UniProtKB/TrEMBL annotation:
<dbReference type="InterPro" id="IPR037171">
    <property type="entry name" value="NagB/RpiA_transferase-like"/>
</dbReference>
<protein>
    <recommendedName>
        <fullName>5-formyltetrahydrofolate cyclo-ligase</fullName>
        <ecNumber>6.3.3.2</ecNumber>
    </recommendedName>
</protein>
<keyword id="KW-0479">Metal-binding</keyword>
<dbReference type="InterPro" id="IPR024185">
    <property type="entry name" value="FTHF_cligase-like_sf"/>
</dbReference>
<dbReference type="GO" id="GO:0009396">
    <property type="term" value="P:folic acid-containing compound biosynthetic process"/>
</dbReference>
<dbReference type="GO" id="GO:0030272">
    <property type="term" value="F:5-formyltetrahydrofolate cyclo-ligase activity"/>
</dbReference>
<keyword id="KW-0547">Nucleotide-binding</keyword>
<dbReference type="GO" id="GO:0046872">
    <property type="term" value="F:metal ion binding"/>
</dbReference>
<feature type="binding site">
    <location>
        <position position="57"/>
    </location>
    <ligand>
        <name>substrate</name>
    </ligand>
</feature>
<comment type="similarity">
    <text>Belongs to the 5-formyltetrahydrofolate cyclo-ligase family.</text>
</comment>
<dbReference type="GO" id="GO:0005524">
    <property type="term" value="F:ATP binding"/>
</dbReference>
<dbReference type="Pfam" id="PF01812">
    <property type="entry name" value="5-FTHF_cyc-lig"/>
</dbReference>
<feature type="binding site">
    <location>
        <begin position="6"/>
        <end position="10"/>
    </location>
    <ligand>
        <name>ATP</name>
    </ligand>
</feature>
<keyword id="KW-0436">Ligase</keyword>
<keyword id="KW-0460">Magnesium</keyword>
<feature type="binding site">
    <location>
        <begin position="133"/>
        <end position="141"/>
    </location>
    <ligand>
        <name>ATP</name>
    </ligand>
</feature>
<dbReference type="GO" id="GO:0035999">
    <property type="term" value="P:tetrahydrofolate interconversion"/>
</dbReference>
Amino acid sequence: MKQFDKAALRKEVRARKKKFSTEELIEQSRPIIEHVLGHPRLKESKTVLLYNSLPDEVYTHDLIQQLHTDGKTVLLPVVISDTEMELRLYHGSEAFETSTYGILEPTGEAFTDFSSIDFALIPGMAFDAQRNRLGRGKGYYDRFLPLLTNAYKLGICFPFQFLPSIPTEETDIKVDECISILQCIL
Ligand code: ADP
Ligand code: MG
């Protein structure tokens, strides 16, 4: 039943996303990313997990480059099987290949010192005010986030992805905070 509810919400969010072009979504991403850059937990962090955005996600490509240039240790997730992700060090934009999902992924060695990660930026199909997260339905982050014992988990999403309530199961992992553009304006 819950899986059905989640599927219906994913469908609703996909329909909402379709109302905007990729360029409009990049534009809507700017204030969100500005807010992320000003976040005290990011400022004081040394090792950060980011994600490489797909066209329908909050745009992170410039953020990745900027934090790398700032001297932070930047990690990106790479999908390695139907249930697992691994983390890889980002060494700069030249060391990328396109995955089967169309995501730009860093080549190179896996990063496994999970407890050293201070800050994690988490994408989602939707978030709610109870800090619940709805993903794309594979549970990658639910399996992965428990390993990040010291990371501040910051979810980001567009305002139309911020929902009144998301159905959850025991395995769903909350974020510590979620930023959408509405909170940036307030
Ligand atoms: P998402 O988090 O991507 O929205 P779901 O929360 O619906 O996806 O999870 C997808 C599937 O993965 C579900 O069948 C869920 O029970 C399973 N799952 C999630 N976390 C775990 C876990 N830690 N161990 C085993 N299965 C898990
Ligand atoms: Mg989940």
